[in-house]
TrEMBL record:
Organism: Arthrobacter nitrophenolicus
Region (Disordered): 1-32, 89-112
Record field: compositional bias (Polar residues): 102-112
TM spans (from-to): 39-57, 63-82
Record's protein name: AtpZ/AtpI family protein
Keywords: Membrane, Transmembrane, Transmembrane helix
């Protein structure tokens, strides 16, 4: 049974990650290596799985192009999945605001 006082720790003593992506901790102490490996795994895994599906459909239907379409679909799907898990977006450092988007308003005084 789980101790409510230790709800922030896993049974092995490691912190529980609040993110859904594998290999990325909530305090970002792992750096970009684990996130990069997760992105790589999603993309390569998608290419392999969808290429095999395309190869099987090529074999059934007697075509030769579906395996290529499957590889492209797998790469796009892997990138999309890693983006939705927050692995490819830029992260904010603690206490910093992101850069403002849109045109600058302080340069209007020099306009002619």
């Amino acid at each position: 049974m789980r101790d409510p006082k230790k709800s922030g720790k896993a049974s092995a003593g490691k912190p529980v990650s609040g993110r859904s992506a594998p290999g990325v901790s909530s305090d970002n102490s792992d750096g970009g290596y684990n996130a990069g490996m997760a992105v790589f795994s999603y993309i390569i895994g998608g290419i392999i799985v969808w290429s095999l599906i395309g190869w099987g459909l090529d074999y059934l239907w007697g075509t030769r192009w579906i395996v290529l379409a499957g590889a492209l679909l797998g790469a796009v799907g892997g990138f999309y999945l890693s983006h939705m898990h927050g692995l490819t977006s830029s992260r904010k450092n603690a206490g910093e605001r992101p850069a403002a988007s849109g045109p600058s308003t302080d340069g209007d005084t020099n306009a002619k």
